[in-house]
């Protein structure tokens, strides 16, 4: 270990997150390796190591002969200060080698607030920030992840972006890079070739041209690049690679457990939900295979907890059988099984009772809106009756801790909808009073509201976000009506939501704002300790851009959107139709009731959608 | 199988694993090794393991001890073999055995230290260091839960010897492990407080051996 690093580590918080050396890490013999990739996560170790995508990519890429993929995370502020004053460039955990020594530097970016961290990590590594400033073939800097469905705000910093699922695309890209290195290609030559890999978006091959009013005139295609970059999906998800020997951190992380992936995509079509549209079509994994993967993972890691991951656990067809299969293994070994993102229905509560034999945690439901009208408008297929019925059964069964999640600022929301949230919470409280099996223990009902952020590739991608003042008024209105002691109300800050809205639907000019924020000290923006609204506003002013233009402006159907060269599968016409249905407060059927021809099947190359 | 003890080393990158994290790491390693630990009864069952002398972050050890109980039977020689395949880099089990001597009988600890001097000559530091630690009383300010207290660490140092190497002074010390516990990191911090001209630019330590009050090697 570097002598300077050895001196720093005892002084920083939680040093074990900077050392590597964990169980199941992959160490390769350098002489047998001809390509080195740094898989970077632009947030802390504790967050990044909890991310299932990182585990999948790490295992899949290291499965390639001659390729060594290592991990790199953002240091916390104390470590960053020490690194900068000692002049230690950012390194990868397995080998301890600086990032500059790598051929490929790939970021997995799940949320927009991490953008400043990508920039900061490049700087910490001593790598020029902008793609145009990096003229040699390597290191190549790229990114994938959900927020990349609009690649434009980060376009200046990245050589290319992965649109969609990375496990196959990454490998194809690395094989191409191997060829390029062997034959001494220029970076330009490499990028033109890479643009032919399905799912790869090369920003330098698309030129934004603006109208006088600041909207986009066109995204001009250059040098024979594909007209649309089609989102890449794993067509045979059932048998796709899954890491059953993931790294076991030696220090505590956020989600410190085995995670199984049940399916990708979602049948529900909630109109506000980006994941619900951009991960289509629905592809499931066989239940028996999942039980095997679960047991194998528990045995190889020694974890005492396992959880199921998907966008809507209740919609996994063989969920009951899967739980039974896992519980047969878990119960005799005191291993806990947790079920996130269940729907508020009777089936869920039966399942919860079965699963929580070991420990009884709280119940969490997300009705998202306070009135049936608004829930219909956003296509959230949950009725008040379902929700209250579920709560009643839960209270009878001894649960006394319920969390309810809502959004404020959804399209068509009125004060009646806002107050509907407090009315619903009161109804839940009355239910507890009349049905609780053990009243002596009291009840906790937690209501949380976040501020709706319109996202690309959703029916609300054309919507104006409610402005901050109006959002605060709605929070205040709701607070006045949350009087019961047993109900606690938490609300999310409007500041972050405005910035998130700008970054979500921003165009290429936003890159300058991101860089300016970083230059004035911005990083770790998803942490309240670090986020500074004033810093962002100053940066917008300096770049002569108006955040409201991006966040609070309604677009027409004809407007050229910054992400218009990305073909997510789901057609814009379908999204627009869904938006119109919202304004009529009409529901669309879920994919199992009736296929709505959203367009995502076009990504499957003849494969089937399991909706 | 009850009343078992592991002797293990913790070196290299593993020295940054905290005490709490080490407990978790050990429990998981036992499960990976297919050797379930015995759990306590009750509402929140936890593995019944205990460590002799919690190790501070950054200090290495070649002689740490952990007591545990196993569900089922396993030959004692099999335990290190299985665990060493299940432990992260830097933690190595040296042996497993049934214990006869309680942790409370541990008294002395043999540590080796490295004092790094960047711009000063280590051999010129030697006389000062020897004189300093030969004092009858070394009263330092020590942070405790109740605030900052004065503490005399001299009685807790049974012997200390220094030697000069390339850019470093190495030391061997026999210090009190329990009642009172002397964290070896207090040796450089005593210099910082009382003789800053002798303070090394960096100090690191390795526990080498533990003894009982009669200076018998403790197992």
Explain the overall architecture.
With 611 residues, chain A is α/β, with parallel strands linked by helices. Chain A has two domains: 3-230, Rossmann fold, CATH 3.40.50.280; 258-492 and 565-600, tm_1862 like domain (pyruvate-formate lyase- activating enzyme). Chain A has 20 helices and 19 strands. Chain A has helices at 3-8, 45-48, 52-62, 77-86, 115-124, 166-183, 187-194, 274-278, 287-301, 319-330, 346-355, 372-377, 384-396, 415-435, 468-480, 494-504, 510-519, 533-542, 547-551, 572-583; strands spanning 35-41, 67-73, 104-108, 140-144, 160-162, 200-201, 206-210, 216-221, 229-230, 258-261, 263-264, 283-284, 305-309, 336-338, 363-368, 401-408, 444-451, 487-491, 566-567. In chain B, a hairpin with an 8-residue loop joins β2 and β3. Chains A and B meet through α9 of A and α1 of B.
Query: What does the main sheet of chain A amount to?
Result: 6 strands, mixed
Fraction of residues in β-strands of chain B:
35-45%
Q: Biggest interface pair, residues each?
A: A-B, 27 and 30 residues
| Poorly predicted ranges of chain A | none
Query: How many E-type strands of chain A?
Result: 19
Pairing-aware structural class of the strands and helices of chain A?
A: alpha/beta
What is this entry, summarized?
The complex is a heterodimer of chains A (611) and B (219). Chain A has 611 residues and is an alpha/beta fold. Chain A contains 20 helices and 19 strands.
Q: Which labels suit this protein?
A:
heterodimer; A: 611 residues; alpha/beta; Rossmann fold; pyruvate-formate lyase- activating enzyme; 2 domains; 4-stranded parallel β-sheet; 19 strands; globular; B: 219 residues; alpha+beta; Alpha-Beta Plaits; 8-stranded mixed β-sheet; two-stranded antiparallel sheet
Summarize the topology.
The complex is a heterodimer of chains A (611) and B (219).
Chain A: H1 3-8, E1 35-41, H2 45-48, H3 52-62, E2 67-73, H4 77-86, E3 104-108, H5 115-124, E4 140-144, E5 160-162, H6 166-183, H7 187-194, E6 200-201, E7 206-210, E8 216-221, E9 229-230, E10 258-261, E11 263-264, H8 274-278, E12 283-284, H9 287-301, E13 305-309, H10 319-330, E14 336-338, H11 346-355, E15 363-368, H12 372-377, H13 384-396, E16 401-408, H14 415-435, E17 444-451, H15 468-480, E18 487-491, H16 494-504, H17 510-519, H18 533-542, H19 547-551, E19 566-567, H20 572-583
Parallel strand pairs in A: 1-2, 1-3, 3-4, 4-5, 9-19, 10-13, 13-14, 15-16, 16-17, 17-18
Antiparallel strand pairs in A: 5-6, 7-8, 11-12
Chain B: E1 4-10, H1 19-32, E2 50-51, E3 60-68, H2 78-84, E4 91-98, E5 106-116, H3 122-133, E6 139-144, E7 147-152, E8 157-164, E9 168-176, H4 186-194, E10 202-212
